[in-house]
Amino acid sequence: MSSSSVQPIVQLYEVPGNDFTRAGEASSKVKGILKKLGYDPDAIRRVSIAMYEGEINMVIHANGGIARVEIFPDRVEILLSDQGPGIADVEKAMEEGYSTAPDEVRALGFGAGMGLPNMKKCCDEFRIDTAIGKGTDVYMIIRVRGSKS
Amino acid sequence: MQYFHSVRLDEEKCLGCTNCIKRCPTQAIRVRDGKARIISNRCIDCGECIRVCPHHAKRAVTDPLSMMDDFRYKIALPAPTLYGQFNHLLDVDYVLTGLIDLGFDSVFEVSRAAELVSDYTRQLMRENKLKTPVISSACPAVVRLVKVRYPDLCGQVLPHLSPMQVAARLAKEEAIRQTGLAKEEIGCFFITPCPAKVTDIVSPIGISQSWVDGAFSIADIYKPLLEKMEQVKTPRPLSKSGIIGVSWANSGGESAALIREQYLAADGIENVITVLDQLEDERLTELDFIELNACPGGCVGGVLTVENPYVAKARIQRLRKYMPVSLNHVNGSVSPEILEWDGELEYTGGMQLSSDLVEAMRMMQEIDALEKMLPALDCGSCGAPSCRALAEDIVTGSGARLNDCIFILRKEASSLGVSLSDHPADRGRIHPTEEQNDDGKNAQ
Lengths: 149, 444
What we know:
Structural class of chain B: alpha/beta
Oligomer: heterodimer
Number of strands of chain B: 11
Radius of gyration of chain A: 15 Å
Mean pLDDT of chain A: 87
Largest interface: A-B, 26 and 25 residues
Order of helices and strands of chain A: EHHEEHHHEE
CATH architecture of chain A: 2-Layer Sandwich
Strand content of chain A: 25-35%
Low-confidence stretches of chain A: none
Order of helices and strands of chain B: EHEEHEEHEHEHHEHEHHHEHEHHHH
Number of domains of chain B: 3
Helix content of chain B: 25-40%
Number of helices of chain A: 5
CATH topology of chain A: Heat Shock Protein 90
Strand order of the largest sheet of chain A: 1-2-3-5-4
Number of strands of chain A: 5
Number of domains of chain A: 1
Shape of chain A: globular
Strand order of the largest sheet of chain B: 6-5-8-9
Largest sheet of chain A: 5 strands, antiparallel
């Protein structure tokens, strides 16, 4: 069966900005779907981590946003989009250990400055579009290893 | 592949209610034709359905005590949980002597083997030879849960036999040496607190052939054993284990035995799932050992026990008071290799829609569409635990139909002029209304 003959599974999630306790819900739902599909375990792991970190970022820095996930047989495409403050220095934000997270978030164990670097590590394609005062789009593709790109 | 399960249904007692389907952690039960059915490849024998069934229609298959007669030499392997069942017990030897008086030729405490597993785990962790966080393999329901649901975590499960299997092997080898009997003439019987252990005897994890020959439930042996114990005047000095081994009966006991700080011990199947989910997302990296027990409180909470888990725990705490710390160590008379699994834990799955990904994606889209037609009440009246599960059952062709949903059925009936109810829900709250045409069929 050719993989192009099937429509991608598209999921849209709202990531609430005001409720920290719900951060991680969307990534957990996506993980559940991928498991049901019998998706490649390594890809599931990378999707879960990348999306979880992204969700946390949106909650901490951008008062929430939306996550759009498209599941193809050979890859998962994730768009995390927020209307937050934007990232002033993307290069710096990508450095391990660099964080602008407020103290109250650090007190919960977040804000170690590993979010974006971890996300990038999990992805085969990773792009950030950001504008100060307007918001940030993080675009990620995770491919099933061994499948054609 | 054939699956053996200890958890079974007593059809006559089953009323077809929805208690078990809602509580099953792997959504492995459906009610069809008025009776519960267990989906074999999803069941992990945790016993939650036995715990929750108000009609006692779920039971665990254990062996009758008469099975002892099939062997010339009989060895009892008491789980440490057994010690927590008796009031005013101050010395384990009363229990062990009672077992001998009951007809066993010898006893081998499972807590002895637990101390060996602990010792060997400590050693391997000290040498950094295990992938951390290490997940305990003591609870077979948890190991089976990992096998069906967590492909990524299979490599982190402690690759050691359960204390039950280790105890049986050591006991049997010792008996062969002492009696000269053949292996087949010696029977090892585990006194079990739970059905998952019974499954682990028939289809053992990590080895091809179980060393244990049968399992007697604590509930079954309790009364005859108590009668023998009451007659014991001077208990024989049989116990050869200490605090570390006996503490395995409680959640946290196996972890404490490692004498490390970075551990977590979770009990109760829902809590176990929460922890495994987080582990899978690599969110528990600061820990090096994860102890998980499917039953609340650990093995003392097993469904085949007599006493409630908190009382049993308190009794074991008291019993431990005059015990040595540990009496069993590897490298002495026991070589550590016998504790090891033959191979790695294999992921079997069982939750996925299809082995073909593209086919699974098509099915998922169909399920999504069907789910939108259902009332989202998750009432369980159709026999599936949720509306989503019903949609899945329909698409996977397991015999379910859309009008198994009583709300859909009512719609269909009312469109044929038959009134099943005058409930306001009929007049528009349930969304299939909009999607139905005059024939009462669902427009696609």
